[in-house]
Amino acid sequence: MGTTKPFSKKLHEENDELAKKKMIEVLESWGYSAIRNPKRYEIDVLADGDNTNSKVVDLGIKFGVETEIKHPWKGENFPFEDLNIPSRKFKLLSGNAYFGVFNSDLTKLAMVHSDYVALSPQKEVSNRLVKEGETFFKVPLENVSFYSV
User: Fold this and answer.
1) Which residues, in sequence order, are CB contacts of 3 under 8 Å at separation 6+?
2) What is the DSSP string of 24-78?
3) Pick from 134, 123, 121: which is nearest to 2 by CA?
4) 125, 83 Cβ separation under 8 angstroms
5) What one-character DSSP code corresponds to residue 5?
6) Predicted TM-score (pTM) of this structure
7) Domains of the chain with bracketed CATH
8) pLDDT tens across 65-114, in order?
């Protein structure tokens, strides 16, 4: 799997709770019940949507969402040729899971199901935190849904 980004308490404190809170807000606006996962080292948000009411966005009955904020994504348009999901998140690829990536001001959301992530090629990508060695799933944008939130 190569090099991974070292854990940063500062980045975690600046982004984790903000992304989870926004994801719960979005899912609830779409007709789901959603909570922070009480298990700290597992997927971020757990959601449940019974079949009795219609959904704005149909993501299934029970699922999880791993959230992040992509700070280089500013404004409306996604500026990258594919969606990078860190390979270190491979443990979240089983089951009914989504990856939800917000832009820097939390007004746009990219969502992709873990099945599409698992089928995507992995490639080493240099970034501002890890200059070499960190690998990512390179998810083609045709497998990603984008929403204004």
Assistant:
1) 130, 132, 133, 134
2) HHHHHHTT-EEEE-SSTTS-SEEEE--TTS--SS---SEEEEEEEE-TT--SSS-
3) 134
4) no
5) P
6) 0.85
7) 9-148 (3.40.1350)
8) 999 999 999 999 999 999 999 998 999 988 899 999 999 999 999 999 99
